[in-house]
From TrEMBL:
The Pyrrolo-quinoline quinone repeat domain, residue ranges: 28-253
One Pfam family hit: PQQ_2
Domain of life the protein comes from: Bacteria
InterPro entries tied to this protein: PQQ_rpt_dom (IPR002372), Quinoprotein_ADH-like_sf (IPR011047), WD40/YVTN_repeat-like_dom_sf (IPR015943)
SUPFAM superfamilies: 3-carboxy-cis,cis-mucoante lactonizing enzyme, Quinoprotein alcohol dehydrogenase-like
Stated name of the protein: Pyrrolo-quinoline quinone repeat domain-containing protein
UniProt organism field: Nonomuraea recticatena
First and last residue of the signal peptide: none
Transmembrane domains' residue ranges: none
Amino acid sequence: MLLLGGVVAPGPGGKTVIWSASSGVPAHLNAVDPATGAEVARFDLPDAGGAWAVDATPDGSVYAGTYGNSHLFRWTEKDGVKDLGNPLQGETFVWTLAAGEGATVYGGTSPGGRLFGYDPATGVRDYGRLSPSHAYVRSVSSADGKIYAGTEAPAALFEIDAAGGAVRQLPLPPGLDPAGKWAYDVNVAAGHLYVRFGGAFPGPLHVWDLASGTWIDTVDPAHGLDVSPPDEEGRVYFVKAGELVRYDPRTKTTTPTGVPVTGRVANTRGIGWAELGLPDYPGRSLVGLLWRGMMFRYNPQTGAKSFVQSGIRGEPIDVTALSQGPDGRMYAGGFLNGGFAAMNAETGKAEEFHTFSQSEDMVSHDGRLYVGAYPDARVYSYDPKLPWNSTEYSPSPQPGPVPNPARLFDLAADKQIRPRAMVSAGRYLAVGTMPDLGHLGGVLAIWDPVEGRLRHSQRNVVTDQSIVSLAYRDGVVYGGTSIYSGQSATPPTQKEARLFAWSVAENRMLWEISPAPGKPAVPALAFDSLGRLWGIAGGEVFAVNTHLRKVVKRVALSDSKSSSGQLAFNPRDRRLYGAHAGRSVFSLDPLTGRHAVLKEGPVHQLAVHGSGDVYFAEGPKLFRYHQGR
């Protein structure tokens, strides 16, 4: 499961619960009893994939702002959950919500970088775009008639008059360079504005005094996503350096609680106060959820602390990567929620499932399964002969010491986020990546597993293009590119995808061509039994003679210009199998070009097993095409 937005507030019957949105199709708004972890309520959020934005207003309403359909939902005791539609037409993502007065809520969106308010009595108010140079209103908070909003990089912070709509940009903390940083978490508590500048991972939390209008302190590193509501003395709690701490803005001091919050994503998904009625938890206790469904509790009076697995149900996860492992099993990785699953190829039964990162690609190499993970373009090595133990993604707050999969390297310093292509390249592993928002140009990386180091890493092997597919033969890595960045909001500068050949021994480009004029991406490559290199681009499949460096055969499937596609060669029947533009699965005879549709459907992942069986995924569903059936 993956929990994003959350808040501690009254739920059904007026009892305090932890509200949280779980990602899935559809996403759900969940209410959890903080004393037991049991599910109190669960509501569908139709057509939504998830919700970063969850907040509760003083009248008892709970709001969720979603992605997938960019809708605003409202829960009340009387009416349950109601879909209020897209508050701002043209926006595709509600990133953040903040409670105002009564039943009013404020929200921020992308890709237009707009702010809105919603009052059940008067409807939606569009405050417009806060900055012509920003596409995201990432985080919002509100107090005393003012709305505070933070943007993506270069980070900017705004104060908006809720009644009049006037917008004022606030100064950044002294010495802060906003380049590459987001105003990621914005929270008002007891006369102070807390803003964490950076990204999804720990960074400095700056404190602004609302009365004096000055920055008064910095706490580093803070994890986010929120600071708690203040206690009776104006102190707040948040996660700092892997531990829950209390912060007093008057004395500018932090006090540890002894509550560990470990792993790659050690931040809260809803944090607040509740009376638990449990031994050792007198009065109000601090409670919250972590991203994988674990719930934590801390009592300031007694120091009592505990972790409990909540009763929030998991959701099906869309498959984002498929590969045969070195042990003959089929492995699958999942979207956003992550997940890592192994299936027995003979019985068709799932044998393992573990929480993990979003997988962009997987490939077997020399007895290991290598996994490319989003974000930061991280690459891991998994040994299926050893027990699973992810020190970053274990559901326990205190995972074991020896990692498997082991993290080998990442390409965050090169502004890369998606290791979209991986291939076993003789002694080496070759990886191709896609860059982060606002950047173009992927990296070609060559990893040496024997020496445990990057042998080569180079960005912009093809200018302003990502590397989204790889193949290997006789000392040469062949790469297919995409004109797009790893984030769709980044406009491309190139008109069509390229195919290139790279010498591993010499670390240099041998040649590049445009194999599919006008097509934006070559998302898959595969060699056939004759040594021809096949690729897919939109609705076209093509074959390249690598010695002549030119396309020698084209097969038209449709007129699509989609950047999605899969292609794999099956040595058992010497046919190509592919996924076409998210429309269908097909087989193709590379000798004749004859092709047939095997199944219609939105298929984006496909792999051929050594048995000759073809595996493909339709969202969270895995299919197997068995020869002879």
